[in-house]
Amino acid sequence: MQFFALFGGRMLTRSFLVGCVFLGCHVSNGRAASLTWDFNGATSPNPADGSGNWLTANDWWNSTAGVNSNGNWAAIGPDNAVFGAGVPGAYLVNLGSGNIYASNVVFNTSGYTLTNGTLNLLANGTPITVSSGVAATLKSALAIGVSSTFQVSSAGALSLAGGASFSGNTIFTGGGTVDLSAGIFSGPNFAVWTQIPLTQEAATLNAVRIMIGYGGTSTYTMSSPSAQATSNGGGGDSFIGRAGSTGTWDLKQGTVTLAGAGLRVGYDSNSKGTLLVEGGSFNLGNNILYINHFATSSSGAGTVNLSGGTLTAGAVQFGAGGTFSPGATGALNMNGGTFYIGSGGISKNALGTLASTLTLSGGTISATANWTSSLPMTLTNENGNITFQAADAGANARNITLSSAMSGVGGLTKTGGGILTLSGANTYIGSTTINAGALMTTTASTGGGAYTNNGGILNVQLATSGSSLNMSALTLTTGSALNLDLNSFGNPTAPVINVSGALTPTATVTVNLGGATLSAGQFPLIKYGSLGGAGFGALALGTFTPPLGVGSSAALVNNTANQSIDLKVTVLAVPQLVWDGTVNSSWDIGGTANWKTAAFYTESNGVGPEVFFDDTASGSKTVVLNSMVIPLAIVVSNSTAAYGISGSGGIAGA
Predict the structure, then answer these.
(1) Would you state the pLDDT for residue 7?
(2) Contact between residue 116 and residue 137 where contact means Cβ atoms under 8 Å apart
(3) With the CA atoms of 260, 264, 268 and 270 taken in that order, what torsion angle do they form, in degrees rounded to the nearest 10?
(4) DSSP for residue 239
(5) What's residue 405's pLDDT?
(6) What does the alpha-carbon distance between residue 270 and residue 285 come to, in Å, rounded to a whole number?
(7) Quick one: residue 42, left, alpha or beta (phi over 0 = left, psi -120 to 50 = alpha)?
(8) Cβ-Cβ contacts under 8 Å for 211 (sequence gap 6 or more)
(9) Which of 30, 42, 353, 547 is the one with CA 20 to 30 A from 54?
(10) 3-class DSSP state of 14
(11) pLDDT for 140-170, tens place per residue?
């Protein structure tokens, strides 16, 4: 005989029910009852607020369809669980050690905490609702098998401390507050909708994408060193502010890892997005940080503020190719923390009038790879000078090249073993300090602040003939080098560096010259207002590019009358020897006077003079060369004398 049972208006076969018993499946009757927690059981008043065990007999009040009676929580056919008979308090409801199944949970009265076990919520739509002004805590684990919306109404508060497994997308909305205080929360897209605010303490969030501000103003704050948020980027970039909404992601402490995709701060239309990094680590790896991705309307905005902690991105990009209306903005503000930037550098990809600004004061901008930027930057003194570290976190040298102007009242400090190149017409008036590596700048800069070289390299290139790099002071400490690149302009007509105040070399400093071929003369390299420290004797002339050649010399001169450090170049007449061969046929080095006026062939610094072979030789025309000689040049100008050169030696070029 076949067995049929009617459950919620549906006919179920006996075999199906038996299977459910043994396989543990849960059957919804399609008309879930709304059961209210009643710790009194059968004792009136019913229902009543209080503490107890979820599965205690008669602790659920059923008022559906006028039943008005106490009953037990059913293991199958999950009903709606309602907490709150109207008396706020501090109530603890124990779910036990196993699974509790419910359609959804509603908190109507403040003070309830659910603990232990796992709460499985099976209804589509809104599995958890917290009414206006109500506070609730879930220390039990959550398992939600559908896309879900947590509704926390205005002035309501929901604390989740047991973790959760989400099979579908998760949305937080309603205007109240949500706190992820502990546990692991895993699922696909994680969206903070119209929730103000959502906070995360010692909890871990694992999501495909994290979406802040997607349907209303939202704030997501991470405030514990143990807080972790991870996105694998499988569904695309995470974002802050979309569809006309305003979103803020505030990392105070903790760790954020966005792998596989980037972050869009200000996603589209008139959205506004803000990323605040105050502490912890926010790591995008090699992915792009978009500042105002496509919020092209006049009120669209993207803002990144870094004041502490560490921010890492493969690139920073203002805009994503759209046409921006007047009023649209993108801003990167930094007054603390460390920003590691990858090979993509800092760039702008926007048509129209996206107003992009970079304001720097305090903190460190570093490099995971060599990178460049052509965007202007403003240096302020709000929190001291910005530091550019031309190195990665492992102290491996990296190069940073900034080709646009740097302006403002602030200054900068250069660290790291790589090269920081400032090729723009900079006007910032703050100080410049080199603590390691090389700083390359040009005389196009006009800020005039003080420079300090603490054992690094300061390279100054002439931008135009007759120009100078103005400084209020120049201090050169032990191990410092000063490279002056004269470009292609020949002997300078004005000092390469013009110090209005004190020039202070504290120990030996090498001065190297490069660029143009120099001719004879004396010209200023460094003008000074006063000369202190170890004085002129600490300045040592280094290398030249190209070398001056045979018969020339150069020396630094302290021109006290002009208050300048000059370079004096002397070019001597190049000596010439004419072959005579009257002693014998030997061409040697300093041994035989076989040259006109009884001269000997000699070499200085490995180079000899020019030598001539013409028709005036009175002796042997057969020249025997048994040494290796390096004359500056050989000139053969003969019409009647027949010369021959032989022997075991040779001739090399100077």
Answers:
(1) 21
(2) no
(3) 160
(4) E
(5) 98
(6) 28
(7) alpha
(8) 189, 190, 191, 192, 238, 239, 242
(9) 30
(10) helix
(11) 999 998 888 999 999 999 999 999 999 989 9
C-beta separation of 571 from 519 below 8 A: yes
Please report, for residues 48, 96, 103, 153, 457, the alpha-carbon distance to residue 34 in angstroms, rounded to integers and kept in the order given: 15, 21, 9, 20, 77
Q: List the Cα angle 215/218/222 in 5-degree steps.
A: 140
Residue 645 burial (CB < 10 Å; 0-12/13-18/19+)? middle
Distance between CA 647 and CA 424 in Å, rounded? 59
CA-CA distance, 654 to 606, in Å (whole number)? 8
- Whose tokens are 């669209």? That residue is 300
Backbone angles phi, psi at 21, to 5 degrees: -65, -45
Exposed / middle / buried, residue 137 (Cβ in 10 Å: 0-12, 13-18, 19+): buried
Q: What's CA 354's distance to the chain center, in Å?
A: 21
Return d(Cα 185, Cα 231) in angstroms, integer: 12
Query: Under DSSP, is residue 245 helix (H, G, I), strand (E, B) or coil?
Result: coil
List Cα–Cα distances, 274 to 34, 245, 257, 375, in angstroms.
Answer: 41, 11, 17, 21
Residues found in the chain: 654
CA-based nearest residue to 337, from 384, 407, 288: 384
H helix or E strand, kind and range, residue 15: helix 14-23
DSSP state of 311: E
Dig out the tokens for 453 from the structure.
């070289």
CA distance 117 to 163: 11
Task: Give the dihedral sign, CA 123/126/128/130.
Answer: negative
Burial category of 457 from C-beta neighbours within 10 Å (exposed 0-12, middle 13-18, buried 19 and up): buried
Round to whole Å and give the CA distance between 510 and 526: 13
Asked whether the beta carbons of 610 and 574 are under 8 A apart, the reply is: yes
Pairing of the two strands 481-485 and 644-646: unpaired
For 201-243, how does the pLDDT look when each residue is reduced to its tens digit (9 = 90+)? 999 999 999 999 998 899 999 999 999 999 999 989 999 999 9
Residues 6+ apart with CB under 8 A from 574: 550, 551, 609, 610, 632
Distance CA 416, CA 421 (A): 13
Strands 412-415 and 386-389: parallel
Question: How far, in Å, CA of 555 to CA of 539, rounded?
Answer: 11
3 state SS for 319-373? CCCCEECCCCEEEEEEEEEEEEECCCCEEECCEECCEEEEEECCCEEEECCCEEE
Q: Residue type at 212?
A: I
Low-confidence ranges of the chain (pLDDT < 50): 1-30, 547-549
Choose among 440, 564, 447, 446: nearest CA to 494: 564
Contacts of 395 (CB under 8 A, 6+ apart): 416, 417
CA distance 153 to 174: 5
> Residue holding tokens 């075999």?
15
Nearest to 408 by CA among 432, 433, 428, 393: 428
Reading the block at residue 608, the tokens are 């000899």
DSSP assignment letter at 72: P
C-alpha distances (whole Å) from 144 to each of 1, 140, 199, 233 are 39, 13, 21, 22
Q: Which helix (H) or strand (E) holds 120?
A: strand 118-121
Tokens of 475: 């201090």
Query: Can you tell me the distance from the alpha carbon of 219 to that of 217, in angstroms, rounded to the nearest whole number?
Result: 7
